[in-house]
Amino acid sequence: MSRNIAIDGPAGAGKSTIAREAAKQLGFIYVDTGALYRSIGLYALRNGVATDNAAEVEKLLPAIKVELKYLDGVQKVFLNGEDVSEAIRKPECSMAASDVSAIPSVRSFLLELQLKMARENDVIMDGRDIGTVILPNADVKIFLTATPEERANRRFKELVEKGENPDYDKLLDEINQRDYNDSHREVAPLKQADDAILFDTTKLGKEEVVTELLRIIAEKLEGEY
Questions:
Q1: Has this prediction a pTM greater than 0.85?
Q2: What is the DSSP code (8-state) at residue 89?
Q3: Residue 81 exposed, middle or buried by CB count within 10 Å (0-12, 13-18, 19+)
Q4: Around 65, how many Cα atoms within 13 Å sit in the side-chain half-sphere?
Q5: Residue 6 pairs with which residues in a beta bridge?
Q6: Of 149, 176, 178, which Cα lies nearest the Cα of 34?
Q7: pLDDT tens-digit series, residues 101-155
Q8: Are strands 74-79 and 197-200 parallel, antiparallel or unpaired?
């Protein structure tokens, strides 16, 4: 029987980076659900559709095929056959993902893909509603968070390392807006599952977070099996 680990938390908490590394060390498949929503958002932006216009975004869905593929051990995201792994990480795709993730038809469109991967593999899946909606019976549930200021600072450093010239205040505003949008949407809002372990990473470095996450997972799985 496959083992499922659900990691939820707000934008910029480091879920993807940490979950990817933990999955690698555990030999699990990492499923980046945020990348799926970013891909839908990117498609809408490219087609001139307002990402908060549910009716118009829904019309696009039949023409969209999103795939997660592992090439040389690295997860790649494909949108209609195109590798968009880098394109979906642009700031505009972050807000677009927040918009489209609030649309019920989009969530339904991507649900079966996520469930299929969880049924067939040992997975670490991260997102906003994994432990509450997508994998409510996950073996381990973790709510990963950090202060908005710390999350904005991490994003700022990440963009600087890529040679960009980000505005910290704008990044902080975007994170606060995403937090509000994600936690106040009508469908599957961001919230900590009742049986999830709260893990605040504000004062921890990446290696410390990965080490503690693996300890939590090992402790929970040992109790389950």
A1: no
A2: G
A3: exposed
A4: 5
A5: 125, 141
A6: 178
A7: 989 999 999 998 889 889 988 999 998 889 999 999 999 999 999 999 999 999 9
A8: unpaired
